[in-house]
């Protein structure tokens, strides 16, 4: 009976060691030996650390009415800040994000493309020019105080901003970012995220 009891305790102790050893190793590697943490990242875009909530100010729709505080919630959003007029670079960027969204296949419904014009007049001009080629593009005008331009400001004018379905700004892509890298990032996010 004592041999069976000793063997049972030894098995229990071995199971406890097998369970707690990886946890202890992870804590030691993270807190005690941070120099062993990887210095490279797998994301292509520039990660915003910590993620920042979008401004509380509502975007304006084509009629100048409040589009609602949750216009950018519920889906992953690629946001492009348009200028007074959509030039060739603007058209190229919108085409790029349309192609990226198309390549997501069945998951494309979880992603939306958003064009934010500086004001209502620029929104009308952009919509008149872009709507035939980009019927699924969502058009908004910035607030009179330019809250969204100030929030995202300081980046390349052709930058692309990625916002999660909860309204957190997660990443920024420079104007010269390649579609392959952006597509890889959004596919990874959609695979691991259950929101949106």
From TrEMBL:
Transmembrane segments: 12-33
Lineage top rank: taxon: Bacteria
Classification via InterPro entries: SCO1/SenC, Thioredoxin-like_sf
Statement: the UniProt record of this protein carries the keyword Transport: no
Transmembrane is among the record's keywords: yes
Pfam annotation, one family: SCO1-SenC
Protein name, UniProt field: Cytochrome oxidase Cu insertion factor, SCO1/SenC/PrrC family
């Amino acid at each position: 009976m004592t041999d069976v009891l000793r063997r049972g305790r030894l098995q229990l102790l071995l199971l406890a060691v097998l369970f707690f050893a990886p946890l202890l190793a992870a804590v030691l590697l993270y807190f005690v030996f941070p120099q062993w943490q990887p210095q490279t990242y797998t994301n292509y875009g520039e990660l915003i650390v910590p993620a920042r909530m979008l401004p509380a100010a509502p975007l304006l729709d084509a009629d100048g009415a409040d589009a609602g505080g949750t216009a950018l919630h519920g889906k992953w959003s690629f946001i492009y800040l348009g200028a007074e007029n959509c030039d060739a670079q603007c058209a190229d960027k919108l085409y790029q994000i349309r192609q990226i969204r198309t390549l997501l296949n069945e998951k494309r419904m979880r992603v939306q493309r958003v064009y934010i014009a500086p004001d209502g007049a620029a929104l009308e001009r952009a919509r008149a020019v872009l709507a035939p080629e980009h019927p699924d593009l969502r058009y908004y005008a910035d607030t009179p105080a330019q809250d969204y331009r100030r929030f995202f400001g300081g980046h390349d004018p052709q930058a692309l901003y990625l916002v999660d379905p909860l309204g957190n700004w997660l990443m920024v892509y420079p104007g010269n970012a390649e579609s392959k890298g952006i597509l890889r990032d959004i596919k990874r996010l959609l695979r691991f995220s259950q929101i949106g």
